[in-house]
Amino acid sequence: MEVYIKLLLIVIFSLLIPIGMILIQKILSPKPTQNENKYLPYESGEVPITDAWLRYPVRFYIVAFLFLIFDIEVAFILPFTVVFKKLGLFAVIEAFVFIFILLIGWIYLYRKKAYRWE
Amino acid sequence: MIFNIIKGFILVFGVLTGSAYMVWLERRVSAWIQDRIGPNRVGPFGLLQPLVDVVKLLFKEEIVPITAEKFIHFLAPGIIIVSVITASVLIPVDPNFIITNPGIGILLIMGLSSLSAYSVVLSGFASLTKYPVLGSLRASAQVVSYEIPIALSVLSVVVLSNSLSLVDIVNAQKETWFILINPIGFIVFLIASFAETNRAPFDLPEAESELTGGYHTEFSSMRFAWFFAGEYGHIIISSAVITTLFLGGYHGPIASGLWWFLIKVFILCYIFVWVRWTFPRLRYDQLMKFSWKLLIPVSLINLLIIALVKILQL
Predict the structure, then answer these.
(1) Which DSSP symbol is given to B264?
(2) A9, A23, B123, B145: which has the fewest Cβ within 10 Å?
(3) Which chain A residues contact residue B58 at CB under 8 A?
(4) pLDDT for the residue numbered B314
(5) What pLDDT was estimated at residue A73?
(6) Rounded distance, CA B38 to CA B208, Å?
(7) Distance (Å, rounded) from C-alpha B52 to C-alpha B115?
(8) Which residues 21-80 of A are in CB contact (within 8 Å) with B?
(9) What pLDDT does B187 receive?
(10) 3-state class (DSSP) for residue B107
(11) What is the 3-state secondary structure (H, E, C) of B16-76?
(12) Does a structural domain hold residue B42?
């Protein structure tokens, strides 16, 4: 428990550093001028015309789904890696089966062209 | 308790000044590689350049674009610096210099490095202008794809050490470093951490020639400085984690201690800079294919082999 109180103190301390520096900067920096063009979005000198919310490829959603699958798998393997020494060879064989099924899933996704970016 | 607080202060300021001097190292080494001179005006060998840069940024006006979400725009640079500072305290740098040793140390570090990805993603969507939005879209997919190889190669180290605590992992490497037993894990971790820290050849989120500055285009003054410090601090943290997991931490051939740790971290930081100025940038489809088609199956099979070797040894 003591360990996590220490960690909490460290997080609070590390919050103080950026806040303090921003306060110093507020005092030292010049005051904002009344030129509106300065606060327009930067687009290499052009006047911005449309909203920044673009339509983006559906590939990004697929990557998010793939990440969920594989990350949950990592979360399932994690307890195995800590205790497999006590459980012996049987646990390793079970992990083999688990990861083997995942590799089949990986091949299926490969064949379905889920990893392609065109 | 007081002693611990002083140790914490030393570590935190070590990481912050270290990240400032990473910028100096990067500029000097890139100049050396490209046959230029590099910063050499302020102080001997330009050593005072980072301090002057920070002072200059303190005197700059803070410009927030009119499209920005004010609060998140303020929050994004803070997240990266908090995650870097908190992660720096968890790493065992010397047997007598351990501040906290939580039982799930390596998981906490992985969690904190994912948290700094939030800062990249939020900064783009908070400034709501085109270059940052594109940059943070790329960053989110990239970080997500390279998270899995990192996690799997960390698991292969945990199989060898049977503990999630960083001190236990270091002490398990007293005789043989894990890089000798688990070289594939080391290579996968190194490559994936180039991508996690948004460094070349995987620096698509902030590709200067395409997106001007990527996700931090709309940040100026001290907020920009925090992004810079956070990014270089992340490199130092990644080097320290690689040292702890694969290169034996503070253990060395003659006498173990802080010096071995610092030497190893410095060599890895140098490799980060060296790689950036040697390899050209990948295309985005190549980047995604590299992770999904090569790194993930390789690290999965590596994990199985390591587990099998470990269990048959007994």
Answers:
(1) H
(2) A23
(3) 21, 24-25, 28-29
(4) 59
(5) 85
(6) 20
(7) 30
(8) 21-22, 24-25, 28-32, 38-44, 48, 52-54, 56, 59-60, 63-64, 66-67, 70-71, 74, 77-78
(9) 92
(10) helix
(11) HHHHHHHHHHHHHHHHHHCCCCCCCCCCHHHCCHHHHHHHHHHCCCCCCCCCCCHHHHHHH
(12) no
Q: Which of B60, B79, B85 to mutate to test the interface with A (most CBs of A within 10 A)?
A: B85
The model's pTM is 0.88
Which of A4, A18, A115 is the closest to B102 by Cβ? Answer: A4
Residues, chain A: 118
What is the DSSP secondary-structure string of A18-77? HHHHHHHHHHHSPPPPS-GGGGSPPSTTSPP-S-S-----THHHHHHHHHHHHHHHHHHH
Sign of CA dihedral A40, A41, A46, A51: negative
Sign of CA dihedral B175, B180, B182, B187: positive
* Tens of pLDDT, residues B9-62: 888 888 888 888 888 888 889 898 988 888 888 878 888 888 888 888 888 888
Residue B302 counted as domain residue: yes
* Ranges under pLDDT 70 in chain B: 314
Mind listing the pLDDT tens digit for each residue in A58-105?
A: 888 888 888 888 888 888 888 888 887 777 778 778 888 888 888 888
Q: What is the pLDDT of residue A14?
A: 81
Are the beta carbons of A41 and B218 closer than 8 angstroms? yes
Domain contains B207: yes
- Do B2 and B246 contact (CB within 8 A), yes or no? no
